[in-house]
Amino acid sequence: MRLGLPADEIHLWCAYADTAIDHDTAQHDALRLRYRALLTEAERSQESRFRFAEDAGRYLLTRALVRTVLSRYAPVAPQDWRFETNAQGKPRIANPEALDADLSFNLSHTQGLVVLAVAAGMAVGVDVEYMGCGTSRMEVAAACFSAAEYADLQGLAGAAQNQRFFQYWTLKESYTKARGLGLDIPLQQVSFQHQPPHGVSLSLHPSLRDVAARWAFWQFQPTAQHMVALCAEHQVERVMTPVWKRTIPLQDEAWPMQVERVRT
């Protein structure tokens, strides 16, 4: 069924790996085959290079989610979508028949969860992280965070420090992805400050040649283990609303999700 994308909404689609492809069952095996049938030869080649079945399955899920969701908004079959990338690797739609929809999208995945952001007529970036990973938080923060962000983390401990680390990290990643520049942006030059209960302010180094007021941010925790940040171009004439939807590609229709914004 074709979906409308109101000018004041950004749609966030999520798929949980454990409900789609993570179990060795006949149903999940059948889904993997259906997902693989949607891929281009290049995508199938990419899938075959994964060493672990879990990583290959997650890759299949991400590609199926992008293709099936975009087909809800434009008259293109899932297997017919074509994409091109910029110099930094950010994908964009290359189908001429989808130009009228003026769609932009961004994808992120981590252990157990895939999130796809879809918008119309604006740049968008999304990042999701699993908060149970064992990387040394403060070592990463010392290399990638601004002095103010690092000082904020030093004033916290335990679970509070862990959550704040991933709040900063996902916000930074969502911004770099929205701009389409990826690792070309030094993360220390992108600095956030939390403004309770839900807000954040952004400070940018002059060398980035950007204006903080150009961007709007939201942050969510769809599960106790996952942090999500969304970045989109600020729309002066309207208030944007993120709308969450959950699906299993090619199996279930979408159903709405209630996801609370993160309190700071």
TrEMBL record:
Keyword Signal attached: no
Transmembrane residue ranges: none
Keyword set, alphabetical order: Transferase
GO BP term, example: lysine biosynthetic process via aminoadipic acid
Domain spans labelled 4'-phosphopantetheinyl transferase: 123-231
InterPro entries the record matches: 4-PPantetheinyl_Trfase_dom, 4-PPantetheinyl_Trfase_dom_sf, AASDHPPT_N, P-Pant_transferase_sf
Keyword rRNA-binding: no
A single GO molecular function term of this UniProt record: holo-[acyl-carrier-protein] synthase activity
Domain 4'-phosphopantetheinyl transferase N-terminal: 37-118
GO cellular component: cytosol
Gene3D superfamilies, A to Z: 4'-phosphopantetheinyl transferase domain (3.90.470.20)
Record family assignment: Belongs to the P-Pant transferase superfamily. Gsp/Sfp/HetI/AcpT family.
Descriptive protein name: Phosphopantetheinyl transferase
